[in-house]
Design brief:
Layout: H1 2-16, E1 25-33, E2 36-44, E3 50-53, E4 56-57, H2 64-81, E5 91-92, E6 96-98, E7 105-110, E8 115-120, E9 128-135
Antiparallel strand pairs: 1-2, 1-9, 2-3, 2-4, 5-6, 6-7, 7-8, 8-9
Length: 146
Amino acid sequence: MVRALLFVVLAAALAGCGKSQPPVGKWEGGYEGGGDLVAARVEILASGQVKVMAPDITNAIGPREQVNRLRAQLAADLANGWSEVGPRSFDFDGKTFRKPGGVAPQMVWDKATNQMTLQLYIGARPALPVPLRPVDGFHDNPFASG
């Protein structure tokens, strides 16, 4: 009896040490702030591999009409280029995605809300957090709500 209980406890402990499986699904979103524009998509496949694309424009300042044209351009670039995006592997600890063997967070997943935050690195600046919402299918305009 004691040996069986010890086996169950040991098995449960080892199961907790296993590699976390990333959530399967799709996320998209857009970011606008401080002259930066980003349109982003993430898809996590059943294999655990990740497809990610996030075209950006910096210094996107000017009249609202001009910024809206730039947003539309990014959305079109994202939609038109998505079929060319190949899946990549990331290390995942249950919350944070990192490049294999890497330190810098690439994405952060909130299990409670199923929200993904893409950590976008533009030049030598600190990471720009781009919040993404879960979607059943991708939209022509990732900036749109819903």
